[in-house]
Write a structure and sequence with these properties.
single chain, 278 residues, alpha/beta, six-stranded mixed sheet, 8 helices, 8 strands
Length: 278
């Protein structure tokens, strides 16, 4: 067994896949394209920004034909599906040269890896958002309109059962790293063997360990905030339900006409003004 740093952490994922060889390998296996790159940028931003919200991509690479963006997220409650659609669209729009030509000069593909969320699909841990037109009536894909086949792909790494090779082995390897130890003998892909070497615990720097700790603490804060918000919502719902029940009882008592509004307020716990308003 090899001791590794978990790929749930942004800093570790970037450490691994900022290597052009590993980035190229995962892009080939998930996207079916062979990138010709010699560098991978991280925390990539567009200057000037596209749209009203500035985007920052975890990992970014492109050659003369393809732009590939990789995001890794670990069960961040603040993230939404629309955020990544926005990122994808911003990356697509940024390639347009001028208003004289709206043709896309390259294909834009984004992969988002989730290491702590369940897939919303009952059938697969990989979801694909295609930017391709279909016939309104028949649903038939019209593949002769756009030259470039843009895609936004969501990968839920722990739902790798029944996933076709070679995607499954990458998903399993990422998920396997989360408990900080992996059995290299379970993997045949040489790129995955190299991945485990890069993220080996002994090769993690003190700075990277500090950033892992910061990410861990931030995740705890987000989980706590989510729980507090959920609990507050449930409490408010219970209180609203109890109040509605008391209002119904007060209405019935008023209809009987045997008690004064002051007595009804005292029995139900409602204010005098609330009882009068019913």
């Amino acid at each position: 067994m090899k001791q590794v740093a978990p790929l749930r952490y942004d800093v570790i994922f970037k450490k691994a896949f900022s290597h052009p060889a590993l980035f190229t390998a995962i892009a080939k296996d998930f996207l079916g394209i062979q990138l010709e790159i010699d560098k991978v940028e991280h925390d990539k931003t567009f200057i000037p920004s596209v749209g009203n919200v500035a985007t920052k991509f975890d990992l970014f690479a492109q050659d003369n034909k393809n732009r590939v963006i990789v995001e890794v997220q670990h069960a961040r409650y603040s993230d939404t599906y629309e955020r990544f659609v926005y990122y994808q669209c911003a990356a697509m729009a940024e390639t347009i040269i001028s208003s004289n030509n709206y043709s896309f000069p390259m294909t834009v593909k984004t992969i988002v890896f989730f290491t702590g969320k369940n897939t919303p699909s009952p059938d697969s841990g990989i979801l694909v958002h295609d930017f391709e037109p279909r016939d309104f009536v028949t649903g038939k894909l019209l593949d002769n309109i756009y030259q470039h086949k843009h895609q936004l792909i969501f990968v839920y790494t722990h739902d790798f059962a029944d996933t076709p090779e070679p995607c499954r082995e990458w998903m399993e390897a990422i998920h396997d790293s989360l408990d900080e130890k992996v059995n290299e003998n379970n993997y045949t892909n040489p790129a995955i063997q190299e991945l485990f070497t890069v993220i080996e615990k002994d090769k993690i720097t003190p700075e990277e360990r500090a950033r892992m700790k910061d990410e861990y603490n931030q995740a705890d804060v987000e989980k706590l905030s989510f729980k507090k918000g959920k609990d507050a919502g449930l409490k408010e719902g219970e209180e609203k339900g109890e109040e509605n029940g008391m209002k119904k009882a007060a209405r019935n008592l008023k209809a009987l006409g045997t008690l004064t509004v002051e007595q009804i307020a005292n029995v139900t716990g409602l204010t005098l003004e609330m009882v009068k308003a019913l």
